[in-house]
From TrEMBL:
NCBIfam families: allantoinase. This is allantoinase. It comes from Nesterenkonia sandarakina. The lineage of its organism: Bacteria, Bacillati, Actinomycetota, Actinomycetes, Micrococcales. Residues 67-422 form the Amidohydrolase-related domain. One of its GO terms (molecular function) is cobalt ion binding. Its EC number is 3.5.2.5.
Length: 477
């Protein structure tokens, strides 16, 4: 069933909640009627009586519930094909849908092959076809020697290009050195593309590991985090800003974990450099000292740091120095997570949290007096802008009718085994959250509703194309 009318007391329009009636046609929001409080009930009667309405395709949302734009998660590792046992398109996008994320952009690595040329992009799209529950787009990757593949990838519709400045964790996606980074940035700047960077400095981490005496065993999280210190992020961000000055390339810092880099970021912005920054739910929810020893489900790179740093990241968001919050969902099998246990050094570095990220951040934001309107900007509007997804990220005329129904009062405790992710291991296991996603709509098609929690979801997701592609429409409709 396609939704034709949605009437609700609380619809997020232009950053504020208001009673409204949305009219949807072919998946697009075609009319928005702002209503006075309570008017929705009467409006529902009118729509029901009209020829178009006749009851079908109409939803009246409970006055308790809020209608938000679908979240856009631009940092997700799906891992299929090649490491499908870690996560796949079906399970990953199902988790996204259930977590209120209606569009994901998949990272170029951890799948095999990595997305470093058009042929590998096609392999990924083939693997994804027909089994996605939300819309899916793809980042390309920069590795040594693939500069000539970047423009063709851009024209094939990737959203930008990821690179590492130190080993990525998988050998088929090697890092670039300073010269290779600049070569790639010069090329990407030539077509006004975007480079997205895992910003940790290899030498600083080498030095920190040597200073620590290469301990045989590091099971206390904060001790392990010392091997990937704040300075590694600060040094990498500093180098990146220099490379931006030299090449003029639009650049995005992935998963910022250290608030100590914020001053550099503020200066670069003041200088007018086209720099954007994201952080992740786990850096905003947890602190290193409180993580139980050997709990590899919290291992990620860069690491979670102390509580003071966590609050400084919240400040960075409030001040707008950090633009966006994305999951960096990077799961693996339980075996990979437990490798070398309780030593954290060998465990896979990546947190599984796609389904939980939005509600966890909303919960933590509320504890700090920050409203869901602001969280929605970080996780829907700004991420859509980052990727250039003009049809996504807000409830407005001409946008896709991608909607999330949110109950701000429903309380639940996360169970990793109960999430739709492929592997039942997550840092959010036993995390208590107030506020829950109870419904989602993708381009006018309800994926699930608060009233119907038993019907299976349908894989109605399509492919998203970046701004470099001649065809901007969603494929596969
Ligand atoms: Zn990542």
């Amino acid at each position: 069933m396609m939704l034709r009318h949605l009437i609700a007391e609380q619809v997020l329009l232009d950053g504020a909640f208001t009673p409204a009636h949305l009219e949807i046609l072919a998946g697009e929001i075609v009319r928005i009627h702002r209503l006075s409080p309570g008017e929705g009930r009467r409006r529902a009667e009118i729509v029901k009586a009209s020829d178009v309405g006749a009851g079908a395709g109409m939803t009246v949302v409970s006055p308790r519930h809020q209608v938000l734009p679908g979240n856009v998660d631009t940092h997700v590792h799906i891992n299929e094909p090649g490491r499908t046992s870690w996560e796949g398109f079906a399970t990953g996008t199902m988790a996204a849908a259930l977590g209120g994320v209606t569009a994901v952009v998949d990272m170029p690595l951890n799948s095999i092959p990595p997305t470093v040329n058009v042929a590998s992009l096609r392999i990924k799209q083939q693997a994804a076809a027909g089994q996605t529950y939300v819309d899916v787009g793809f980042w390309g990757g920069i590795i040594p020697g693939n500069t000539a593949a970047l423009r063709p990838l851009w024209e094939a519709g990737v959203f930008g290009f990821k690179c590492f400045l130190l080993p990525s964790g998988v050998e088929e996606f090697p890092p670039v050195n300073a010269a290779q980074l600049r070569e790639a940035m010069t090329e990407v700047a030539s077509f006004d593309g975007l480079v997205i960077v895992h910003a940790e400095d290899a030498e600083t981490i080498e030095r920190a590991t040597d200073l620590g005496g290469r301990r045989r065993r590091l099971s206390h999280y904060a001790d392990w985090a010392q091997t990937r210190p704040h300075d590694a992020e600060v040094a990498a961000v500093s180098d990146l800003i220099e490379a931006m000055r030299e090449t003029g390339c639009r650049t995005h810092i992935l998963h910022l974990a250290s608030a100590r880099a914020l001053d550099l970021i503020a200066e670069a912005r003041a200088e007018g450099l086209p720099l954007t920054v994201e952080t992740c739910p786990h850096y905003l929810c947890f602190d290193a000292e409180a993580i139980p020893d050997g709990a590899a489900e919290f291992k990620c790179c860069p690491p979670i740091r102390d509580a003071g740093n966590r609050e400084a990241l919240w400040d960075g968001l409030r001040e707008g120095l950090i633009d966006a919050v994305v999951s960096d969902h990077s799961p693996s099998t339980v075996e990979e997570k437990h490798r070398g246990a309780p030593d954290l050094q060998q465990a896979w570095g990546g947190i599984s949290g796609l389904q939980v990220g939005f509600s966890a951040v909303a919960h933590e934001a509320r504890l700090r007096g920050i409203g869901i309107e602001t969280v929605s900007a970080w996780m829907a509007k700004h991420t859509a802008q980052l990727a250039g997804l003009e049809r996504k990220g807000s409830i407005a005329l001409g946008k896709d009718a991608d909607l999330v129904i949110y109950d701000p009062w429903q309380t639940h405790m996360v169970s990793a085994a109960g999430l739709a992710h492929k592997n039942p291991i997550s840092a959010y296991d036993h995390f208590e959250i107030t506020g829950a996603v109870v419904g989602a709509v993708l381009r006018g098609t309800p994926l699930y509703t608060a009233q119907d929690t038993t019907s299976p979801l349908a894989p109605v997701g399509g492919f998203l194309q970046g701004i470099g592609s001649p065809s901007l429409s969603v494929l596969g409709r």
